[in-house]
Design a protein that fits this description.
- By secondary structure, the protein is of the alpha/beta class.
- Helices cover about 35% and strands about 25% of the residues.
- The chain has an eight-stranded mixed beta sheet with strand order 4-3-2-5-1-6-7-8, with helices on both faces.
- β7, α6 and β8 form a beta-alpha-beta unit.
- α2 packs across α3 and α4 crosses α6.
- It is globular and about 70 Å long.
- It starts with a strand and ends with a helix.
């Protein structure tokens, strides 16, 4: 019979470790594994194995290449398998800046773990006061000494956003007023994910295997379950949903205002001059990433649809409109005191005018493309 495994992530070590302690105390026979990655760039990692009584093993691991992927493949999975015969629950406590998706998929899809381990949850523990500050912070991980590998250029806020949005449950600790604000923010960032104060019972973690493919589909740009229009006190989520294509230069000129006036924004969109490609928008704390997420399904032969995931086909069906198919502008913007009318009017001004739209794709192809330096570089390096 397979042993349940739960992943606990979080930028803030104190609430994360406290949640792990709670899980160990509530589940007799459970064991937790944590890899300290402070020196991973040198190929050295410290592995700590503990139970409710204390530390069982402290071991320095040397890796051929210092990275999170190597740590998971070369040490975490073998260690979990070695403990599977005696533990009632295995808790994987991730290092501060490790994003849980990489680890979850490695555990779920590794050929040696399929029958012996079952991933039952991905929990993210948050310090209420620091989380609401960090989601607005433009510091890099390296600037805070929290990077997970040499050359790690990620920002603190983008890692925190991914830890929040990928989780199956969120646990928040801190003073009552801080927790109340954090829960309100989380209700906008991840409205379908259960979130609760840490003084309540932790989420159940010994049940059925979670579907990692569906978990990924919740956050992938082509299939993401994006938040709806909402307002909680001063916090707003503004949804922009349109069908007409965007003019590349006008959108590019509007990007700075859109990302600096909001805390978090994401979604999928299409540029007139790249009308066959689904583009992903991902911005947090003033830092934006625009990526090519593949073709719109309407551009593919019908036979190719069978090669796409059920989630991808469902998302395309929900967005479908003739004659555009699944092409859509669907962006969401989250932040305090947002000027909804300003955001919507600014984005609407970036759409093609009626006469530009009627000119057709041959004309659109000739538009100057300021996004080319990012998107074409992506294609070259792929």
């Amino acid at each position: 019979m397979s042993v349940p495994v739960v992943i606990v992530s979080g930028l803030h070590p104190e609430p994360r470790s406290a949640l792990v302690d709670r899980l160990l105390a509530d589940h007799p026979g459970s064991v937790a594994i944590h890899h300290d990655l402070r020196e991973v760039s040198t190929g050295r990692v410290q592995r700590v194995v503990r139970n409710a009584s204390g530390t069982l093993d402290l071991h320095e691991v040397r890796l051929a290449h210092g990275c999170v992927t190597c740590t998971v493949r070369e040490d975490l999975i073998p260690e979990l398998l070695s403990l599977a015969g005696s533990a009632s629950l295995l808790v994987v406590e991730l290092w501060d800046s490790v994003e849980p998706r990489t680890v979850a998929e490695a555990l779920a899809w590794h050929e040696d773990t399929v029958h012996r381990l079952r991933l039952t949850g991905v929990l993210t523990a948050l310090d209420a006061a620091r989380a609401t500050d960090d989601i607005c912070c433009d510091d890099t991980l390296a600037a805070r000494g929290r990077h997970a590998a040499a050359g790690d250029a990620r920002h603190l806020a983008e890692v925190l956003a991914r830890q929040i949005e990928y989780a199956t449950a969120l646990v928040v600790s801190g003073a009552e007023e801080d927790v109340e604000l954090a829960l309100a923010v989380l209700g906008h960032l991840a409205p379908t994910t259960p979130a609760a104060p840490s003084d309540l019972a932790p989420p159940a973690v010994t049940g059925a295997r979670i579907d990692v493919e569906m978990l990924g589909a919740r956050v992938d740009p082509a299939t993401a379950q994006l938040p709806c229009d909402a307002r909680t006190g001063e916090i707003s989520t503004v949804v922009w949903h349109r069908l007409r294509p965007l003019h590349p230069q006008r959108l590019f000129d509007a990007v700075d205002e859109l990302v600096t006036e909001t805390v978090r924004s994401r979604g999928r969109f299409w540029l007139a001059n790249r009308h066959e490609r689904l583009l992903a928008w991902d911005a947090v704390a003033g830092v934006i990433t625009v990526e090519d997420a593949g073709p719109w399904l309407v551009t593919l032969p019908e036979a190719a649809w069978e090669m796409e995931s059920p989630a991808r086909r469902m998302a395309a069906t929900l967005d479908w409109s003739a004659p555009l198919g699944d092409r859509v502008q669907h962006l969401v913007f989250i932040g305090p005191d947002l000027d909804r009318d300003r955001i919507l009017s600014l984005l609407d001004s970036c759409l093609l005018t009626e006469s530009e739209a009627l000119a057709g794709s041959d004309v659109w192809a000739g538009y100057p493309d300021p996004f080319a330096s990012v998107l074409d570089l992506e294609e070259t390096s792929a």
